[in-house]
Amino acid sequence: MSANKLSSLRLTPAPESVEELAAFAKLQARLPQLFHSVGGDERSEHTVVVVPSLSMDPRELAKVSGVHHYEERLLFYLMLLRHPRTRVIFVTSQQLSPTVVDYYLHLLAGVPSSHARKRLLLLDCADASNKPLTEKILARPRLMQRMRAAIPSTQSAHLVIFNSSPLERTLAVQLGIPLYANDPALQDLGTKSGCREVFREAGVNFPDGFENLHTADDIAEGLAALKTDKPGMVRAVVKLNDGFSGEGNALFYFGGVDGTTHAERKQQIRDRLPNLRFEAPAEHWASFEEKYQQMGGVVEEFVEGDNKRSPSSQCRVNAIGQPQSISTHDQVLGGPSGQVFLGCTFPADSSYRLEVQEAGLQVARVLASKGVIGRFATDFVSVPDGAGGWVHHAIEVNLRKGGTTHPFLTLRFLTDGSYDQETGEFRTQTGAPKYYFASDTLQNDAYRGLLPEDLIDIAVYHKLHFHGPTERGIVFHLMGALSEFGKLGLVCIGDNLQQARFLYRKGVSTLNREVGLETAPPGETTTR
To answer: Is residue 267 part of a domain?
Structure first.
């Protein structure tokens, strides 16, 4: 072991030790003062260390095509460089394409790219493995040294991440800067079981079901109890506690479960569990059962109904513990039964967006009371109530950044506008409303081989770029996944939702023509 590594180990407490927990608590106590100083003066010296690690179960992440490129979704943080005294350190698993970096820097209004670039440090691990990025960083002491050396003052710096785990706590302690995210000790609140307990405490409506289950027998018992309580139930959903983007879900159909006693129904259900219908294409019962035993999960009623919608309420608890509503979205969902996240529209439908906003805020108040900080989203399934209104069923809390985070912050950073909680709309500095359609999952094998340079050339030629004066157009992301996986993300910003959808269709149709396809864009209005 090198002297440098030994030195590093002596200076920092062991991961998950009592000493590390104490050091982390001391760092987190700095956040309120940092919040006031940075929020009060955008010209103050500040360093933001961005580590977009998806620190989740690798088996679940493996279900997402090109998942390591999802680190690029946090590149909108480069727009913080519009503040003249802000530095950004951005760390990735693999080196970012210079074209992608230039693309984001040119979105900065009123700041010369050269000035911004001097305040940007890009680092990478040169590691494409499926380990979480934070784990890769912690295993590289020389990289850690470069990160520490690039932070002028730990008193005016903080760490930004995608989701919080013990790895991020260790990284914060070893860097000596606070983590602006949820304490990993509270991460169970964001599991499928933890969500149900939070919903119960918040007093919001959520599907009937059972949480904190671990075995096939638990699943069968829960499903049998649901069928006993509601004999007409057609199907129920079985969820892994730490499933990602809906791909940890499976459906159970009750057809043929006709036992006259609870015990008979339970046995019939137990025998049929291998026939669960999984949302992830490659999932199967043996793998699912193993993960269920390890991470636990829930069973709950599958919400049925015509004209179902899937709205989401985004909230945050700021560094001084205040819960706030920050946006609502309608999710675009796909997969075998419409449970896989494909994209979103902003804002949510005007007929229910304020109801969803308030229900999400009820959840946020409970989470704030438990010490949660940072951004999170509460997802709902909504069905018409037959009287012109809607019934909203809370189904999960994503206690992290998610697929709705980067589109909204992209809009906010590009326009310097703000979210109006009274109307649920976003307005620019001139008072103009803005809408968007966003997707992370535009994918076609015909796109493989396209480089970021090719995409930008196509966008410039066809005038698809975001246009600063009109504050309309398309912002691309996940460009690093294009060549290998044929996958791309888009945020299509317009003056109304129809215009935003038009921009999406135009962008996809243009790209299709450029690669020799004449097919229409995929069904962007899919809902469950």
So the answer is: yes
Radius of gyration of the chain (CA): 23
pLDDT reported for residue 3: 43
Beta carbons within 10 angstroms of residue 208's beta carbon = 15
- What integer pLDDT is reported at residue 109 of this predicted model? 81
Pair (413, 277) in one structural domain: no
Alpha-carbon gap, residue 187 to 189, rounded angstroms: 5
120 and 216 share one domain:
no
**194 domain residue, yes or no:** no
DSSP notation for 214-239 = -SHHHHHHHHHHHHHH-TT--EEEEE
Return the SS3 of 519: coil
How many CA atoms lie within 13 Å of 115's alpha carbon, on the beta-carbon side?
13
pLDDT of residue 425: 96
Same domain, 213 and 166: no
Domain count for the chain, please give it: 3
Mean pLDDT score of the chain = 91
Residue 451, phi then psi, degrees to nearest 5: -90, 160
Can you give 14-31 as a three-state secondary structure string? CCCCHHHHHHHHHHHCCH
The pTM assigned to this predicted structure is 0.89
Low-confidence ranges of the chain (pLDDT < 70): 1-11, 39-42, 60, 63, 244-246, 335-340, 519-528
Give the span between the Cα atoms of 507 and 504, in whole angstroms: 5
Instruction: Tell me the β-bridge partners of 343.
Output: 332, 439
Q: Which amino acid is at 528?
A: R
Whether residues 137 and 243 fall in one domain: no
Q: Which residues contact 178 (CB under 8 A, 6 or more apart)?
A: 27, 28, 30, 31, 34, 158, 159, 172
Q: Are residues 132 and 10 in the same domain?
A: yes
Short-list 193, 144, 210, 203, CA closest to 173: 144
> What was the pLDDT predicted at 527?
32
Please count the CA atoms within 13 angstroms of the CA of 454 that sit on its side-chain side: 15
Domain that includes residue 78, residue range: 3-181
Does residue 255 lie within any of the structural domains? yes
Q: Which of 274, 301, 328 is the last residue of a domain?
A: 301
Q: Are residues 324 and 441 in the same domain?
A: yes
Out of 252, 270, 301, a domain closes at 301
**pLDDT tens by residue, 21-49:** 999 999 999 999 998 887 666 678 999 99
